[in-house]
Amino acid sequence: MSEVSSAQLEALRTLLPSEPAKAKALLEEGLHEQPESAALRYGLALLHENQGRRDEALRALRDAVAREPHWLEVATRDFAAVDRLYLHELGLESVPDFIGRFTRLKTLDLGHNRIGALPDSLGALRELEILYIHENRLTHLPEALGELTAVHYLNAGENPLSRLPDAIGRMRSLIELRLLHAGLTALPEAIGSLAALRELHLRGNRLTALPEAVGELRELRHLDLQENQLAALPDALVKMPRLRLLDLRANPLKALPRGLEAMPALEKLDLRWTGLAPPPSLRERGCVVLT
């Protein structure tokens, strides 16, 4: 079987429902002759999808896109209803606008690429729940991010971002937000609108202050501020009734916020490499304090 043409691909689509065994034999023969063929791997993805083997189909699709990225656009026809796409570690430098056609996506993994910007069409993925965009070359996040109101996990760490858009505050379903080593120098007040947020990871940024709005994160359980440039923390921090872990390691803090010892759920406070001593009452009530 030679390299698949558009006509042959259409013929394969027609053949699969009625004669899947014949289609499989043709594809296997072709892959034996041309094991690196992106077109044949795409055909294999169609075969697996036709057989109800979604995981195998997505792996074959990823193989095709890794060899020739244009197969992702072809997939908007055949795989428009997929609920997950794994496009990590493919050397991608951009995300095409047509990514917004995969409107049923719940998981999108674009991590470990060389992507410099995200298209506004990303906002069309209204069912998306998990978004990995870490370790790329993103210098900003689009306002369209605010349209992703079903996302509960976002990892945008290891990008040279410097700032977050105010639109982040519209992602009201966020439970875990990971922004490690993202070059952030400040957080927007809109961060306080993330009412469902339970974990906020900000390690290794350049934050010199936190907005008072962080006190509105009443569901927050885990706050990692390790390795920033914080000299002070807002008193509003102590308004978090469910915060269990507060990591302040390696910050040039001058003092701790007033009322820290009264935080009812605090179980662990890490003050290593700050030079600060905790209120004695924290240890007395069983809170683990590292200094």
UniProtKB/TrEMBL annotation:
<dbReference type="Pfam" id="PF23598">
    <property type="entry name" value="LRR_14"/>
</dbReference>
<dbReference type="Pfam" id="PF14559">
    <property type="entry name" value="TPR_19"/>
</dbReference>
<dbReference type="InterPro" id="IPR001611">
    <property type="entry name" value="Leu-rich_rpt"/>
</dbReference>
<dbReference type="InterPro" id="IPR050216">
    <property type="entry name" value="LRR_domain-containing"/>
</dbReference>
<dbReference type="InterPro" id="IPR032675">
    <property type="entry name" value="LRR_dom_sf"/>
</dbReference>
<protein>
    <submittedName>
        <fullName>Tetratricopeptide repeat protein</fullName>
    </submittedName>
</protein>
<keyword id="KW-0433">Leucine-rich repeat</keyword>
<feature type="domain" description="Disease resistance R13L4/SHOC-2-like LRR">
    <location>
        <begin position="190"/>
        <end position="272"/>
    </location>
</feature>
<dbReference type="InterPro" id="IPR055414">
    <property type="entry name" value="LRR_R13L4/SHOC2-like"/>
</dbReference>
<feature type="domain" description="Disease resistance R13L4/SHOC-2-like LRR">
    <location>
        <begin position="97"/>
        <end position="182"/>
    </location>
</feature>
<keyword id="KW-0677">Repeat</keyword>
<dbReference type="InterPro" id="IPR011990">
    <property type="entry name" value="TPR-like_helical_dom_sf"/>
</dbReference>
<dbReference type="InterPro" id="IPR003591">
    <property type="entry name" value="Leu-rich_rpt_typical-subtyp"/>
</dbReference>
